[in-house]
């Protein structure tokens, strides 16, 4: 019941899934807030949420309870999987580890796609093992269906595609059943791939590709078919089958390691600004390790799985291979420093290995009774006796068992304290953001219901807009404001960008932006008054909802600038408290006035100001960069806070930015109050 003691947050990505699920069951189709087809992520999780809405309605509390109850399947499925793979005792301990120490027990986020993905994965793995044991064709096909659903839940699941071949090599799954498994994957995924191409002319996981790429794929496929036919006629497959039969384990590990390396390189190549530095180490220590109370013994579980595999246990080898196949996802999560819920599957497999170690250690320890303790009691043992004692592993096993028990006791205490603190903080209601829907969002929703006529279009920035659109239940038309973003490292979050335009804006700009971000590679992202007004006219929107723009400088700082320009008037404003009273994010409803905007300073974060100065020094030279910045931004620069700039040197960077602005303009322009 500790799983249900937290007040669950509904962050923007959870609202994204809720709104898409509502669109599906409402007959709108799988479309985003704009009404455009959603081709980035598969529809399985939103469809699952939509199905629950059909049963329970749109009440957030009921939906959150249903999804969390569904997540309770994870310890049960892990128990069934490990029982079939390793044994009953290992399965019971693994399930207990996952239930008490797993991320699901402490993370407060509702509608967690990764917990749902873990359920799909454990069920898929269990179906594969059951199909292997029973030689069942329909279970083989069903396991393929489940893997296809995994891929359409989260595209990174494609890393486990070789699982069936590994099962054939290590566990003796027949070729017919393996082919049925992959037929099931194709049956589920092919309609989605065709639909994605039909609505967007893009290839799932690859994005937009030129037409000749498809011709190339067809040509390569035809050549592959001819090569396979020729190989069959020459008896190559028969010889290959004989080789595989004699070298099953070697071939399995070549496949697992080779696939993992290729998948890792492919996935890391898609990461912008790939680097491992001090920030990566902090993420590993402060988030991954802190969120895993048994992290210090999990490596021992991995070593134990390797040792058992070397000793010849194919079941252990299969479990180890299952973990290795997730390495590409782990690497991406590490270098991108994304939420620790991305580690749920790896954590579950790690706990399974650790359970085997905890079960094996006492068995080793029990052998101590067979050792002749009289040798020790007679006095100082001889050198040969010491060597015999140590080589028997009994002393080491005894020490290891004691250490493991102490680690488990310590980890249990840490996790209990975390859970207790979470319950206490929620009971005290110290953090109103950690409620199912933020009160400020509900306040804005109620104001919209009472003051904006039905059918009106509201243009909104990303943060909280999906929550509001979901709560609005189609009373109004919602559109998302998208920027034309610079591509490459340090670019704006994709959730805030137009996906059809990924080009670097012209520099120097032809119009003066009222907001600008400059990354460290001199790629600007800018918004001008004309951009915003043109977007509103295109969407026939009279209202503009300003919220925090995901990942970059807060767009709530736009509100005073937009009001001061005279082009917009403030209709209503409410605040979201994040942690402390000083850290407030505003939700502001503005209405366009039709007046021409006045000239105002450009809003920039400290990091952007520093990058701008460095970029202009390189572009025009040290002696001309001040004049160049004055000509580009003639009305000055408003320095605004950056929610991501929370490092230890942030104050120093802000001081440096102030000095740069004062050296260029001779003064530091002061922004109007947020409440103005």
Describe the structure.
The chain is α/β, with parallel strands linked by helices and 676 residues long. It folds into 2 domains: 2-361, no CATH class; 439-665, no CATH class. It has 27 helices and 11 strands. The strands form 4 sheets. It has a 5-stranded mixed sheet with strand order 4-3-7-9-8. The protein has a two-stranded antiparallel sheet with strand order 1-2. Helix 25 packs across helix 26. Mean pLDDT is 79; it is low at 426-436, 487-494 and 549-554. It is found in: Cell membrane. GO terms for molecular function: pentosyltransferase activity. The chain crosses the membrane at residues 63-82, 91-109, 144-173, 179-199, 211-232, 252-272, 293-310, 316-336, 348-366, 386-410.
The first-to-last residue Cα distance is: 47 Å
- The overall strand count is 11
Coarse morphology: globular
Let me know the largest β-sheet.
Answer: 5 strands, mixed
Keywords: Cell membrane, Glycosyltransferase, Membrane, Transferase, Transmembrane, Transmembrane helix
GO biological process, one term: lipopolysaccharide biosynthetic process
Domain Glycosyltransferase RgtA/B/C/D-like: 41-195
Protein name: 4-amino-4-deoxy-L-arabinose transferase-like protein glycosyltransferase of PMT family
